[in-house]
Each structure stands twice: as structure tokens, then as C-alpha cells.
Design goal:
Elements: E1 20-21, E2 23-28, E3 34-39, E4 42-45, E5 48-54, H1 58-66, E6 68-73, H2 79-84, E7 88-89, H3 96-100, E8 104-105, H4 109-113, E9 117-118, E10 127-128, E11 133-144, E12 156-168, E13 173-174, E14 177-181, E15 190-192, E16 195-197
Parallel strand pairs: 7-8
Antiparallel strand pairs: 1-15, 2-3, 2-6, 4-5, 5-12, 6-11, 9-10, 11-12, 13-14, 15-16
Length: about 230
Amino acid sequence: MTSAHPRSVSITPSILYFGTPVVLISSTNTDGSANLAPMSSVFWLGWRCMLGLDGSSKTTENLLRTGEGVLNLPSAGQVDAVDRIARLTGSDPVPEAKVMRQYTHEKDKFGTAGLTPIASETVSAPRAAECPVQMEVRVAACHDLMADNHSLRGAIKVVEVRIERVHAHPDILAEADSNRIDPDKWKPLIMSFQNFYGLADGKLQPSRLADIPEADYRPLAEIPEQAQS
């Protein structure tokens, strides 16, 4: 007898990267130079963001030392810039785990990516001018992922950051509300199982959640007074 519902099988994949936006994190090195690193273990709620980061990376070191950075969101059209620095690290010497994956050290990752560093307004780390969205952030908390596993504790850090300032290119803003990103115009770069993807044009269908005005969520945003317009 044939089952009426789809059949599932039990699997044990090595990674569970089902698809999230790519972020280029810019941070400040000890000598004052800028570091830039791609990552995609990320989500936002309100004006807070959770970042899943390699505990041995230069980005993690810089964020925890300075307490600040910038989250630059590239569009799908900037995939080449992201890929140019995908296996580079600001750490010197290169951490053992990254040596095994054939990463190499590069100090000027802005230059290698072909992106332009510009001054931020509330943090010392620069923004990437070409990225359609740039968020200046401060570190609010840091947690060890897998803290209950003694052999892996500290390998991955979950860094909670507070958004201090949001910058966006005008061409992705809603015509009727300049404080709102138009999702029909914004084309984020997506990482899924180590490969780059973009979003299809247009909505799949109307969304019931979209009937709720975005402004209803504003009380959770913790928008700094100086950033409000």
C-alpha cells in the first residue's frame, strides 16, 4: 500500500547550513587597521543580532576586544567580492583548523575584496561602502556554543550585538517610507550548504504576517535616540 504523505529518511549531515544571509563583518585590529570577514551564521530580532563565530578567528578576537564592529550585508550582485576573501584570515599565524582547510593570511581584505572602507558614525570599525546595508554594532554578550561538550567548548562563540546605527542605499528603500527596506528591491546574498544563492524575483504569494504593520514591532527595536529620525 502506497503512503499518502511524503516519505522521510533519517540522515546525519556534517553541516546544517540550510540558508542564511551572508554578512561581511568589519572590525578593528590592534594596530588600527581594518579587518573584513564573511560569515552567515546569523539572525536578527529587534535591533539585536546573534552571530555564530569561530572562537579562534581574528574577527571574534577584535569584536570581543573592542566591543564593536560593523555588519555589512552584500547583495547577490557582490558575490565575487565575498568569494575573493572567503578563505582568507586576518590571523597571523593562521589557526591550525584553518591551515587544514587551506586558508591563507591576508591583512588587506578590503582591498582584496575590492570594497571601499568608509568611516562609521558610532564605532571605530569602517563600513563597506558598496554593501547596500551597513549596521554599526556594539557587543552586548558572548556565549560559548556547545558549552556542555568539554572537547568543543570555546570552539564556537555566539556573540550578541546591539545595533547602534543602520545605513542603507536609497535604491532599496520603500518609496512610501524611507525608514523601511523594500523586500522587492533588496536582493541579499544567501549561503546554503557552503554555496552562494540569491532570491527569486517577486513574492511567492501574499503573506498573512505582512498584514501586520512593521511599526507594530518598533517597541522591541531599542533604537538609540540619536539614530531616530
